[in-house]
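Hey, can you fold this one?
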Amino acid sequence: MQYEALNQWTFVVAAYAIGVGGTAALLLQSWLAMRRAEARRDHAREKRQGS
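Sure. Predicted structure:
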């Protein structure tokens, strides 16, 4: 009788990789959006002071 058990650690590692990767992608996207918003704010302030 041949028996092959599934190794659950493959799924655990994959789930952690997806979770950590998704979190890192979300942090990067949020940081870039914050930088763009700060640049727009600074541009608006310079425009207002220059007028």
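The chain is about 85% helix and 0% strand. Let me know if you want another pass with a different chain boundary.
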